From TrEMBL, chains A, B:
<dbReference type="GO" id="GO:0004590">
    <property type="term" value="F:orotidine-5'-phosphate decarboxylase activity"/>
</dbReference>
<dbReference type="Pfam" id="PF00215">
    <property type="entry name" value="OMPdecase"/>
</dbReference>
<dbReference type="GO" id="GO:0044205">
    <property type="term" value="P:'de novo' UMP biosynthetic process"/>
</dbReference>
<dbReference type="InterPro" id="IPR018089">
    <property type="entry name" value="OMPdecase_AS"/>
</dbReference>
<comment type="pathway">
    <text>Pyrimidine metabolism; UMP biosynthesis via de novo pathway; UMP from orotate: step 2/2.</text>
</comment>
<keyword id="KW-0665">Pyrimidine biosynthesis</keyword>
<keyword id="KW-0210">Decarboxylase</keyword>
<keyword id="KW-0456">Lyase</keyword>
<comment type="similarity">
    <text>Belongs to the OMP decarboxylase family. Type 2 subfamily.</text>
</comment>
<dbReference type="InterPro" id="IPR011995">
    <property type="entry name" value="OMPdecase_type-2"/>
</dbReference>
<feature type="domain" description="Orotidine 5'-phosphate decarboxylase">
    <location>
        <begin position="16"/>
        <end position="253"/>
    </location>
</feature>
<dbReference type="GO" id="GO:0006207">
    <property type="term" value="P:'de novo' pyrimidine nucleobase biosynthetic process"/>
</dbReference>
<protein>
    <recommendedName>
        <fullName>Orotidine-5'-phosphate decarboxylase</fullName>
        <ecNumber>4.1.1.23</ecNumber>
    </recommendedName>
</protein>
<dbReference type="InterPro" id="IPR001754">
    <property type="entry name" value="OMPdeCOase_dom"/>
</dbReference>
<dbReference type="InterPro" id="IPR011060">
    <property type="entry name" value="RibuloseP-bd_barrel"/>
</dbReference>
<dbReference type="InterPro" id="IPR013785">
    <property type="entry name" value="Aldolase_TIM"/>
</dbReference>
Length: 275, 275
């Protein structure tokens, strides 16, 4: 998918919602647990009921890997189902990979060729030759960790007052080949940093987790983070997929997604992006 | 496996060699490519011929993932075979994972519980709550990226003269709960940094890739990096597993491993670790 196609989807749906798919056997509804492939059944139902309200899905590979090869198969099935039924949705493998040259290319092949995802999340620690192999794929994106929303972010990302590590990641990565295919993870609990981040990467899409459960506020995020192409994908995982653990979980998930979509439609009007 | 058991293995074999398993369909011998599971066949033959000369194996998950669910099955089979035939070898999943709390626990479960690996490589970017979930598992280890051997390492790891990022990673991570179960990746091409690193983490094992192919020298690494329990695992991947692409590839791999083991035995004598 191209960035222009993503922006068009956002405009058509008045939504920049990304739904995170973190299937957990302890949390999915009891009536699914004994199925042959409970993770796929769960994700499929969530997708069917939320797809009208979101423009992106973000399966978290860790949850699938925790079930071994069977989990990896559920992941492949989920992504194949997305490509089949939601061809205009942006699919982000939340894999947080990061390794050198040839190994990075293997990861890129796993997610872009084997599974046909549009993007993969990548950790920046190893620098240029761990990121550029992902950027070499046309119409695919590398979502680089910049400023994350967890407590541990302060260990390394923000220790320096002047040019903290996350700023260094933003500016240095913009010099990489095909940096136009870079997006960045920016935790919404750090809304106060968003203005600065927008100065450093004015054109890049930001993937924002943590609105809701982790306390980020949508209006503050939009005021500080939107650019003239929206430039935001706001992710919600648990707040949608685990809103109910009863048999109606998928309907409730759809309802939660719709509530967020309506808030986003309001923000798009307020920020006058498409007007 | 405990650290004491690992040290005992090193002493018994006079070897601190780790063999990296990076199976690549383009590089494995032609006669294996049409087998039902070429990756497992390749890894099994390599293991059978090198196990007497090494104390650790490091399967690189990227190469397996690039073949999708089938590749993940090959990885599971390879690790099961290692646990069955080499119960005293230390198994490192070279996965370079790194994500927050609950997600990190899922990754730890994938590699420690589903597959029964002894260790997994982890990227430090997200800080404490992305590392401690791995350290919570007894007799398992988290091998944290510190100073890597690739070109891109200079993008972030060594940019500052004073307290560069890799030093910050070493010292901060030592404050994490169960830091006695931390090891660190230190590229051997950076042998000049090893003395400083030993000051910062005197007791930790270091996983050293890049001796050989990437130009690090074993004697320099040992002189600067060994501690009183050896404290080093030196990895070789391509130099062993792709030493030959003919039908005798496994024998040649074994021979290469033996040459390295003998060099290591010399170094152990020279450094008088066990005497």
């Amino acid at each position: 998918m191209t960035k222009e196609q993503l922006v068009q989807q956002i405009q058509e749906k008045s939504s920049f919602l990304c739904v995170g798919l973190d299937p957990d056997l302890q949390k999915i509804p009891a009536h699914l647990r004994d199925l042959e492939d409970p993770f796929f059944a769960f994700c499929k139902a969530i997708i069917d009921h939320t797809k009208d309200y979101c423009v992106a899905y973000k399966p978290n590979t860790a949850f699938f890997e925790a079930r071994g090869a069977a989990g990896w198969q559920s992941l492949e099935k989920t992504i194949a189902y997305l490509n089949e039924t939601c061809p205009n949705h942006f699919i982000i493998a939340d894999a947080k990979r990061g390794d050198i040259g040839n190994t990075a290319t293997q990861y890129a092949r796993a997610f872009f060729e084997q599974m046909d995802c549009d993007a993969v999340t990548v950790a920046p620690y190893m620098g240029r030759d761990s990121v550029e192999p992902f950027l070499a794929f046309e119409k695919r994106f590398c979502v680089l960790l910049a400023l994350t929303s967890n407590q541990g972010a302060k260990d390394f990302q923000t220790t320096r007052e002047e040019a903290p590590l996350y700023e260094e990641v933003l500016t240095t990565s913009q010099t990489y080949a095909h940096s136009e295919r870079l997006m960045y993870v920016v935790g919404a609990t750090k809304a106060e940093y968003l203005e600065r981040i927008r100065q450093l990467v004015p054109a890049s899409f930001l993937l924002i987790p943590g609105v809701g459960a982790q306390g980020g506020k949508l209006d503050e995020v939009c005021a500080a983070g939107m650019n003239k192409e929206v430039g935001l994908l706001v992710n919600s995982s648990r707040g949608i997929i685990y809103a109910s653990s009863a048999e109606d979980f998928a309907q409730v998930a759809g309802e939660q997604a719709r509530v967020l979509q309506q808030q986003m439609a309001e923000e798009l009007k307020k920020q006058r992006v498409f007007s």
